[in-house]
Amino acid sequence: VEGMSLDxxxxxxxxxxxxxxxxxxxxxxxxxxPNVAAYFGHSSLRFHVMGDAATERAANDDEIGKMKVLLxxxxxxxxxxxxxxxxxxxxxxxxxPIASRYADDHEVRExxxxxxxxxxxxxxxxxxxHTTVPFLESVAAEGHHRMIIAAMLWDPSHPQxxxxxxxxxxxxxxxxxxxxxxxxxxxxxxxxxxxxxxPFEPRQAWKQAIPLYNDKAAIAELFSDPQFRADVKADFNxxxxxxxxxxxxxxxxxxxxxxxxxxxxxxxxxxxxxxxxKEPLDWILDFGLTxxxxxxxxxxxxxxxxxxxxxxLAHPSSTVALSDAGAHLSLLCDAGFGLxxxxxxxxxxxxxxxEEAVRLVTSAQAEVFGIxxxxxxxxxxxxxxxxxxxxxxxxxxxxxxxxxxTGAERLNRRPxxxxxxxxxxxxxxxxxxxxxxxxxxxxxxxxFSFQH
Length: 452
Description:
This protein is of the alpha/beta class. The chain has 15 helices and 15 strands. Strand 2 (81-85), helix 5 and strand 3 form a beta-alpha-beta unit. The protein is globular and about 65 Å long.
């Protein structure tokens, strides 16, 4: 799931822990540069309790009871909350849905109630097509906890949907239920190949391709199959909430494998297909086969109408986030969303004052997440500081680097106009980038305040 290299995960994961308390302790023992607050993840919890059955079925009452014990343990140790997903795009190895997607409503409600015991944590959810805001309101009301709902993005295929859902969240808040819509300030662009086609994976007809990604001969045979193509075309004709919907004019070739195809860099699939008199799906599969299935594409998914995005950013029921930092490493890099907010929505568009934008990503975040004594420059607060030039601040262009474990690649953006970062009063970066130092001033945050 999330476009991460299996080799990099296996080669880079530090397994000095088993329990969640040990996980937090490990951070303190090895030292960290940024401050860290950690959610307790639903899928990991299910695997620990249920084994392989975690990706086969809902939990029974005995298993739910064991999960609740471990969730209480995690919250007592300092988890900021509990995180889960019902999103149809979240699939694991071989296209199997991640474990949290097998949970039924009863399991979700029971785990959520644990958060309300003493108001100890947040409920974080990335919702899927069939998870409604009214259902989530009932979960939060019954569990007496704060809930953050992602990912609230403007979708050109469903332009009103996100505003309807944010209104439902607002209505719930007026009834005293603490829901927040997690929104993003950047357009969602993903880079992919046909052997790792994340934008297509939520579509049922495409799922048979996922287990074949690492078998070039087998997937080439599938892509040549007329029935597979017909099934995918029919699936693309259906409306969906969370996936690619035939916006072929937004799919661009960014890199090719063979020199004779270099003239196609920068071209979009809709125009190329029309020129050749083909259906866009046929064109992209045919071309992919001639380019050894190594062509790199880019697709604009959502959140590109900045006038609509501005409404979401300014909404009192929203919280600004969605960097996807650490995920989709080969597909996108939105870690600089705060710099984009300052550069684009403040300096270039004048949608917000600089002070308003800074509040959205500092003190407003601290309040939503219950983080005390941070998020403001005040006497007695921890000195977590970012020094930037408002006349130049932004994020740089995408670049590919190979600095993950096992040499795996990721996309990166370098900051523009950033002159210093301090964590707990210790400088960790200047205008040249991260400082080479043995200092690791970050803290594991374990105490949060979620009282009304």
